[in-house]
């Protein structure tokens, strides 16, 4: 907490006209919240209310991996052979390359003669690209995806990574926009807005027919990543006492985001259709419309905006639900203090006005970019680690709960800085080693270990940055830090794609 005190002190020194008001408001509100209760019934209800948003976070982030997965066993479609058994037509039409076949070439042959003799063309027969699309054997991916339906393989194999990069470009725009929206109009409107745009983009993706309309819809979905959860995360942490904050911050991600990661691959297998999967993961985001009736606006934000009566109503609601009583003199002091403060007009520029705050922001940006690119790279490599995609994704995702539980146990004792930097360094080292070992169990084992460590680093960084940022710029500051991660992850799909395509089939 020493880092927070130093940063906020310097922050207030360089904003002298607001120093007195902001600090006194925060102190008085903290006193009010002490009487409300650190972790009463309302806070527990809010912790439960985080569950759907944690699942939405996982669905928004990872669903494209399952709707755009590439079945590895595919070959050129030859219309003349379609009446034959799948194994027979593959053996007759594919160009053999060692023990495998070329997925992107077929013979330029007289297929009527091939049908008469039922003998594959001679290996010296000229070859050509697939003129009639591709056939896919639905083994490793047991359902048709947007890739198999639209033939995004071979010379079109870059379309999937491009759409994923556009998704992260949307997250860049959405992170900045919804961060500004949260600090200007409130956390709850931003929470509703980001989930609604994710829902619209997800449902609209179903009706696309090509690359660019699909990519545009993924851009819309990207605008909701990860704000669809982080707005709720920031709100709840503001109402939880310091004693319980570490557990709430980390277990909400472990249980809800981690739970969503574990459910998604098997939901995809069970549904067996990429369009229905999008509906199942997008339509529930409409639940955010009901958030204003359950989720209270930030009393700190309302106070900083001079909306004292609304802040008092929120605190009275906590009082009723928790069965506690705020002493009248404490509430009166809060009202008087808040009434004296003028409306804050801080923006992202304020984050870089003071030296310590600016240095902290730059440090967190670098750390978050490192976490993001390692985490995202590990996730996207699940398809190419040599084992079943769905099982590999599940095993790596299963590290969320134990890693974050361990973090919650030791975070307050060992500190945010150590538990961000050390696990991140270990994760990076394990990832480099994984690139040098054989595919299969050795590579998957190292990937699981690396994911365990980067989970710890990621969650420690999220809580650390949220705690250090001053209230007037907390949402926009958090969004800016997260946006830096989005910038790093834009290149991640292309890195994974280049690694996979460099290996011959």
TrEMBL record:
Picking any one GO molecular function of the record gives: transmembrane transporter activity
Statement: the UniProt record of this protein carries the keyword Transmembrane helix: yes
Residue ranges spanning the membrane: these are: 45-67, 162-181, 188-207, 219-241, 253-271, 277-295, 360-378, 390-411, 418-437, 479-499
Where is this protein chiefly located?
membrane
Task: Tell me how this protein sits in the membrane.
Answer: Multi-pass membrane protein
Q: Specify the Major facilitator superfamily (MFS) profile domain's residue ranges.
A: 105-505
- InterPro entries annotated for this entry? MFS_dom (IPR020846), MFS_sugar_transport-like (IPR005828), MFS_trans_sf (IPR036259), Sugar_transporter_CS (IPR005829)
| Coiled-coil segments | none
Which cellular compartments is it found in?
Answer: Membrane
Q: Got a GO cellular component term for this one?
A: membrane
Q: Does the keyword Transmembrane apply?
A: yes
Q: What does the UniProt keyword field contain?
A: Membrane, Transmembrane, Transmembrane helix
Listed name of the protein: Major facilitator superfamily (MFS) profile domain-containing protein
Native organism = Diatraea saccharalis (sugarcane borer)
């Amino acid at each position: 907490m020493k880092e927070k005190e130093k940063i906020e002190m310097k922050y207030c020194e360089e904003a002298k006209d607001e120093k007195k008001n902001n600090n006194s408001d925060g102190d008085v509100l903290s006193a009010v919240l002490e009487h409300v209760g650190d972790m009463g019934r309302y806070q527990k209800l809010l912790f439960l209310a985080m569950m759907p948003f944690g699942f939405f976070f996982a669905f928004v982030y990872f669903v494209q991996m399952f709707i755009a997965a590439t079945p590895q066993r595919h070959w050129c479609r030859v219309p003349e052979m379609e009446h034959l058994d799948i194994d027979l037509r593959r053996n007759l039409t594919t160009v053999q390359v060692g023990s495998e076949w070329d997925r992107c070439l077929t013979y330029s042959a007289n297929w009527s003669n091939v049908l008469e003799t039922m003998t594959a063309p001679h290996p010296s027969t000229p070859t050509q690209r697939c003129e009639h699309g591709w056939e896919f054997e639905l083994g490793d991916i047991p359902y048709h995806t947007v890739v198999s339906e639209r033939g995004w393989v071979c010379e079109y194999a870059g379309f999937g990574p491009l759409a994923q990069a556009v998704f992260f470009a949307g997250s860049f725009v959405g992170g900045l926009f919804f961060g500004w929206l949260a600090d200007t109009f409130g956390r709850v409107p931003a929470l509703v807005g980001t989930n609604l745009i994710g829902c619209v983009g997800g449902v609209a993706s179903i009706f696309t027919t090509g690359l660019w309309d699909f990519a545009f819809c993924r851009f819309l979905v990207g605008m909701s990543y990860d704000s669809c959860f982080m707005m709720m995360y920031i709100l709840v942490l503001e109402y939880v006492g310091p004693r319980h904050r570490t557990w709430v911050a980390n277990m909400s991600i472990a249980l809800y985001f981690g739970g969503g990661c574990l459910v998604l691959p098997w939901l995809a297998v069970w549904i067996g259709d990429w369009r229905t999967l999008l509906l199942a993961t997008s339509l529930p985001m409409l639940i955010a419309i009901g958030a204003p009736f359950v989720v209270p606006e930030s009393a700190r934000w309302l106070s900083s905006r001079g909306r004292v009566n609304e802040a008092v109503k929120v605190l009275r609601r906590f009082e009723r639900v928790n069965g506690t009583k705020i002493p009248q003199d404490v509430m009166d002091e809060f009202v008087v203090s808040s009434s004296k403060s003028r409306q804050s007009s801080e923006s992202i520029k304020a984050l870089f006005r003071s030296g310590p705050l600016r240095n902290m922001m730059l440090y967190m940006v670098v750390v978050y970019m490192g976490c993001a690119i390692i985490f995202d790279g590990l996730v996207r490599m699940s398809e190419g680690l040599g084992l079943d995609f769905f099982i590999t994704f599940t095993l790596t995702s299963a590290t969320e709960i134990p890693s974050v539980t361990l973090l919650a146990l030791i975070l307050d004792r060992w500190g945010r800085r150590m538990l961000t930097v050390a696990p991140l360094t270990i994760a990076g080292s394990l990832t480099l080693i994984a690139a040098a070992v054989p595919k299969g169990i050795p590579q998957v084992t190292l990937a699981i270990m690396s994911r365990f460590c980067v989970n710890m680093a990621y969650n420690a960084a999220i809580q650390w940055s949220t705690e250090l940022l001053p209230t007037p710029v907390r949402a926009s500051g958090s969004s800016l830090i997260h946006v830096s991660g989005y910038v790093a992850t834009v290149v991640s799909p292309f890195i994974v794609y280049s690694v996979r395509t460099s290996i011959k089939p």
